[in-house]
Amino acid sequence: MSVSLLVVSAGAIAGNIPAIVQAYPTVNETLIELLTTIPSLFIILTILISPKVAQRIGYKQTVQVGIGIVCLAGLLPVVTTSFTSLFLSRILFGVGVGLFNPLLYTIAAGLYSGGHLATVIGLQSAFEGIGGMLITFLVGQLLVTGWRYSFMVYGLAIPILFLFGLFVPDIRPTTSDEKEAKTGPTIDRTLIYYLILLFLAVTVYMSIAVKVTGLLYDKAIGDATDGSNLLAFIGFGAMTAGMVFGKTVRIFKEWTIPVSFLGMSIALLLLARAPNLWIASLAVILCGFSFRTFVPYVFNEVNQKSQQATAQTALLLIFFNIGTAATPLTIAYLQHLFPFLHQSGLFYGGAVLMLVLGGGVVVVGKVGFMMRMSDSRKR
Question: Which residues cross the membrane (predicted)?
Fold first, then answer.
């Protein structure tokens, strides 16, 4: 759980950008803005090799190396004055997160199973949200002492590394794990189904982060500060979903995905029609809760049922990060094709898409059930 606090912490330094621009007036501003997003690219690239590294040096050791890199890379800007060193530190930060991110699910699956595993994966999701909010808050508090010192927040990785090494047992790769590392993941229909759903859901979810402040201005119900507060409320909804994920899955079972998508659809519709900040706040909390119910459900299913859980989890994380990074471009392209997807129209469109996806999941589930029943009768 403590390691999960670091998973989404790369973007926490976004508030530093104006100060860094002033500190390096000769550096292109776009290059400085990349400091917040360049880790995501290297997270994607490193996730691909993480399972193979783990096969060579061990799962626990790979996670420890990743945490150590995050700690060193995170703290480097405190002592360096070179922008080149600062930029390289952000690249290394992404490498560190990419090393341990997929292995957290593998270690959880090696230590727990059934309902206990579902609960642990839900808590991992909750702690990712908590980590994002906590580290962003601490960066803001430290920023008053100077932007370099705000990077000291990544010193949080030191006690996390100590606690992980002291309390988390090592797990050994199975024969299937070793084969998986050599051959790579099997891309079956179920995995493709999850990848498509994940990419689309992430894009819709991230559209709130990208466009919600503009929506508040368009409706004349809030400003940039209110938009920032709404993003915090999304995190609150996501954290709550993770805390109760085990119970949610026990209640809804195979209906968890369509119920999650219905919740996102209702949330986006509320946001599009919100007459005030109270309704907008309720909408984003519901959206965060629904989305962070869907995401751990997919990861839980893969780790519970797949014989290639580590590699398939890595693919899911890659699509998650690609969807996140590509959201502004995806939205711009869709708005070019469909001009009505501006302002409130974007959220109406997202609501319709999630409703259609939820209905599609129900249809696919019923068809699969009927096929299984037909096969059992033939036998």
Answer: 33-50, 62-79, 91-114, 126-145, 151-171, 191-210, 230-248, 255-272, 278-299, 311-334, 346-369
Give CA 95 to chain center in angstroms: 16
From the candidate CATH numbers 1.20.1250.20, 3.40.640.10, 3.40.1130.10, 3.40.50.150, the one assigned to the domain spanning 189-378: 1.20.1250.20
What is the amino acid identity at position 45? L
- Contact indicator for 221, 258 with CB cutoff of 8 Å: no
Distance CA 344, CA 347 (A): 5
Q: Where are the domains of the chain?
A: 3-183, 189-378
The pLDDT tens digits for 204-244 are 998 887 788 888 888 988 886 787 678 778 888 888 998 89
Please give the C-alpha separations between residue 377 and each of 363, 364, 366, 368, 369, in angstroms, as whole numbers.
21, 20, 17, 14, 12
290, 263 Cβ separation under 8 angstroms: yes
Evaluate whether 232 touches 283 at the Cβ level (below 8 Å): no
Rounded to whole angstroms, how far apart are CA atoms 147 and 288?
30
- Matching fold, domains 3-183 and 189-378: yes
Domain at 3-183: CATH code: 1.20.1250.20
Q: Which two tokens stand for residue 365?
A: 């589930």
Q: Is the pTM of this model over 0.90?
A: no
* 94 token code pair: 């992404």
Q: Contact 64/168 with Cβ under 8 angstroms?
A: no
Q: Find the length of the chain.
A: 379
9 neighbors 75 (Cβ within 8 angstroms): no
**Phi, psi (degrees; rounded to nearest 5) at 82:** -85, 135
Is the separation of the CB atoms in 50 and 69 below 8 Å?
no
Instruction: Please name the amino acid found at residue 56.
Output: R
Compute the distance between CA of residue 185 and CA of residue 179 in angstroms, rounded to an integer.
10
Alpha carbons 355 and 201: distance in angstroms, whole number: 11
